[in-house]
Design goal:
- With 86 residues, the protein is mostly helical.
- The protein has one domain.
- The chain is 90% helix and 0% strand.
- Keywords: Membrane, Transmembrane, Transmembrane helix.
Length: 86
């Protein structure tokens, strides 16, 4: 990334001095390396996001199971009380 910024500075200086000579192979290699860095960065972001989503789905699943079990026990208790009244 720093190399890319330095190259852009050089391009600006060359264009100001009307000496716009760019080595196309070097520039292509530079763009390819930056493309690879961008690809790796996006892959890491996606991996972190997926880990985050997996954690929250797991956490919410546990909460749903706990509240379901509590609901079953409360419902059974309510049914037993209503049977004893009648």
């Amino acid at each position: 990334m720093i190399r890319f910024n330095l190259t852009l500075k050089q391009i600006m200086e060359y264009s100001e001095n009307n000496k716009f000579n760019i080595d196309t192979k070097e520039f292509e290699m530079l763009l390819n390396s930056n493309y690879e860095l961008l690809k790796d960065s996006i892959n890491n972001s996606i991996k972190i996001s997926m880990d985050n989503i997996t954690f929250w789905f797991g956490f919410l699943s546990i909460i749903m199971v706990v509240f379901s079990i509590l609901g079953i026990f409360m419902n059974n208790e309510y049914l037993e009380r209503s049977k004893s009244i009648f």
